[in-house]
Specification:
Length: 119
């Protein structure tokens, strides 16, 4: 499966992107492309998986429907988390200078392509 190709194309279209990772429901890395250390992006992905799981649980309790995406702003970065299926999710990490709208557009486009590969 050409996951890495999809991730690399997304990063190429986003100057200021730091990395992208696909992980499974346990936070285990499936594939990643990053300008940061591989270990760091894997830990980052696993941590975002925990956040995704907790938010999904909260939405279930509130009968809030399916979670579509999460945006987290940090002092020096932004992270977008997008579920690909029940078992897989995508995390895109970008620098603070990247416009959120552009990053959201690119991560959604990549997620659509990845869903076709996964399903």
């Amino acid at each position: 499966m050409p996951f890495k190709n999809h991730l690399q194309k997304m990063l190429d279209r986003l100057p200021g992107a730091l990395g992208a990772i696909i992980a499974d429901w346990e936070g285990e890395a499936v594939d990643q492309v990053a300008k940061m250390d591989d270990y760091e992006i894997k830990v980052f992905g696993a941590h975002k998986g925990i956040i995704l799981t907790r938010l999904r649980e909260a939405l279930q309790r509130l009968d809030g429907g399916d979670l579509e995406e999460v945006l987290i702003h940090y002092e020096h970065a932004k992270a977008l988390i997008v579920p690909l299926s029940e078992d897989y999710f995508l995390v895109l990490t970008v620098g603070p200078e990247v416009m959120v709208g552009k990053a959201a557009f690119e991560v959604r486009r990549c997620a659509e392509q990845l869903r076709l590969e996964i399903c």
